[in-house]
Amino acid sequence: MSKIGKVTVLNILACAMIIFTAVVVFWLLAKNNLFTDFIKDAENKSFDYRQKVLTGKKSNFLTKNNISVVTVDDVSFEYLWDKYGEWPIPRDVYAKLIDRIEQSNPKIIVFDLLFIKSLKSSAAADKKLIDTVNKYDNIYMAMNFDNIPEDARKPLDLPSRLQVKVDNQSGNNLVSNMTFSNCRTILEGLLNGRANVGIANVNRSTDGIIRTVSPFAYYKGNYYPYLSLLAGDYLLNGKFSGVYAINENSELTVGGREIPITPDGEVILNWYGEAGRVFDMVPMYKLLLDIENGQNSFDFKDKAVYIGTTATSLHDTKSVPVSRLYPGVEIHATFLNNLIDNNFIKKTSLAVDIVLCSILALITVFIVFASASAIFATLSTVMILVGYTFITYYLMYISNLWAPLVLPAIIVIIAFALSYIIKYIIKSRDFEYQYKLATVDGLTDLYNHRYFQESLKQQMETAKRYGTSVSLIIVDIDFFKKFNDTYGHQAGDAVLRQVAQVLKKNVRTSDIVCRYGGEEMSIILPNTNNKEARTNAERICKAVAEKPFKLNAADESHVTISLGVATFPQDGEIPKDLIETADRGLYRAKENGRNQVGAPE
Predict the structure, then answer these.
(1) Helix, strand or coil, per DSSP, at residue 514
(2) Cα–Cα distance between 123 and 188 in angstroms, integer?
(3) Strand pairing class (179-180; 216-219)
(4) I need a surface site. Which of 227, 293, 493, 525 has the fewest CB within 10 A?
(5) What DSSP character marks residue 225?
């Protein structure tokens, strides 16, 4: 294999080893819950940031005028407390609200309030609410599931009319976070009456922020629909279907809308803005005053009307991507708005994420290897990250698509770092190879004549600076021309290589062995006086003479060498003088019969 081939193979092996190591390290990190949780949390934060930035641009997607929220806000809470002297207020108050709102012919009325258990002191008020609700078929009531121990509350069997059937072709676990062992039922007259009852449970991410809602809950072997899914189904279909289908693409079909479902069986909400600034908010106290005064100031015609609390003192506020204090009733309204506008967020699949990461990594690697400037490559990589960030922003804005941001950014940074490591290794290997070509003799693998001249000069300057000695041995192979004439030049080359190896094996690591020219070689011995140099020369001469040299596949022969020695400073103050002195010793050795170290003058 040629030297270039060896260098290329080594470069490929080095790159493969680094990439393999990086893959192993990344795989080990991916198996670590702390790392995966960090990636998930960071990606969620990036989603929150994009949602916040986009809130001002979503007016075109908002059915604000079609959804009203009658809210127990802070002012209404104080008004109701002063008027009725207690909280909760008598339930017949809600009956008045229902009758007043129904006068305007709303599409639906949705209560994000739990009317649990009968208040013994207000049985008449409870009955009034039940009777009023059962007059209409467009009232939606909320109830909650939980996991209270059975000995604290007996789990009740719910009416079959509240259950739904789910045809799940996706393979996703639809209720991985919404399976319950108990429930908080509402008034029996509502539960068994005409009211449409849905589930008000919502999910929080590990950081406590609500980004998703589960369309279904699971209790005692049956599915129960989310409150706003139930209401939206009625709005879109004009009736309650009772059967939901999820196709192989993990899409829930409701009223012609295909809602993307996550692997955990959730839908990702698309948020429109901060609390109180999205929907038509009607303070409850104003509506009650309107009723008391016999006025008709509020028009709810063809609207979906939610009734719930937004007062902070009633503790029904949650954290969502666009606001740290967001009322639960507005979360339900947001789901309905997403459903009506077919505006839920869809997250890219794992396969798409892998493709995105691979493309970004390849682009980064190409830029690093194609660029001669580290600054340009760094700035280009930063621009890749910035550009990709804008792409994810516009994908969410235009297509409601949640493309990953954190993991691709990490992959780009890793690719950038690895590319520079690999590029450095390749350059260093190429530099080493080029340096070797410039300084090493290709036949003998000894340093060449140019390197000899530079090294001798440098060693003499060092010896002069520190007051030490440096010696030089000149070596010539005896009767070398005869080897070439008798056995051919290939045999001569073989002798040169083998003699060079003997020289390298019989010197110190600090000594410098060079090919001086033709069959001549030289050895520079730092920190070596003349006596020590001659001893070394005699040992080398003997080692060569005793070794049989292979000339070709069939022939062997003994070879001898002649040597001359010179030492700085006594034999010369400059390299030229030192070389001439060693040469004279070499010629004296040849004149005296060869196979020896030339005697000093």
Answers:
(1) strand
(2) 13
(3) parallel
(4) 293
(5) E
DSSP letters for 7-41: HHHHHHHHHHHHHHHHHHHHHHHHT-HHHHHHHHH
At residue 390's C-alpha, the angle toward residues 389 and 392, to 5°, is 65
Separation of alpha carbons 255 and 239, rounded Å = 10
Query: In the structure encoding, which two tokens stand for residue 471, read together?
Result: 């010696």
Residue ranges with strand state E in 226-320: 243-246, 251-254, 257-260, 267-268, 280-283, 304-309, 317-320
| pLDDT over 80 at 58, yes or no | no
pLDDT tens for 343-372 read 899 999 888 988 898 889 888 888 888 888
Cβ neighbours of residue 272 under 8 Å, at least 6 residues apart? 55, 58, 61, 62, 278, 322, 334, 337
33-54 and 3-30 helices, crossing angle to 10°: 80
Top-confidence residue, 64 or 212: 212
Q: Model's pTM, two decimal places?
A: 0.73
**Cα(277)–Cα(349) distance, integer angstroms:** 33
How many other C-beta atoms lie within 10 A of the C-beta of residue 130?
Answer: 23
C-alpha distances (whole Å) from 429 to each of 19, 396, 436, 450, 584 are: 18, 46, 10, 22, 41
Burial of 348 (0-12, 13-18, 19+ CB in 10 A): middle
Structure token digits, residue 362? 């390849």
Q: Are 66 and 304 in contact (CB under 8 A)?
A: yes
Q: Is 143 exposed, middle or buried (0-12, 13-18, 19+ CB in 10 A)?
A: buried
> 143-202: per-residue pLDDT in tens?
999 999 999 999 999 999 999 999 999 888 888 889 999 999 899 999 999 999 999 998
Q: At a CB cut-off of 8 Å and minimum separation 6, what does 39 contact?
A: 406, 407, 410
DSSP assignment of 526-552: ET--HHHHHHHHHHHHHHHHHSEEE-S
Residues 6 or more apart whose Cβ sits within 8 Å of residue 574: 460
In the numeric block, which tokens belong to residue 271? 């948020």
| Gap between the Cα atoms of 535 and 512, Å rounded | 17
* Parallel, antiparallel or unpaired: strands 520-526 and 512-517: antiparallel
- Report whether 360 contacts 366 (CB < 8 A): no
Return the SS3 of 306: strand
Nearest CA to 450 out of 392, 511, 516, 397 is that of 516
Residues 6 or more apart in contact with residue 346 via CB below 8 angstroms: 260, 268, 399, 400, 401, 402
In sequence order, the β-bridge partners of residue 197 are 141
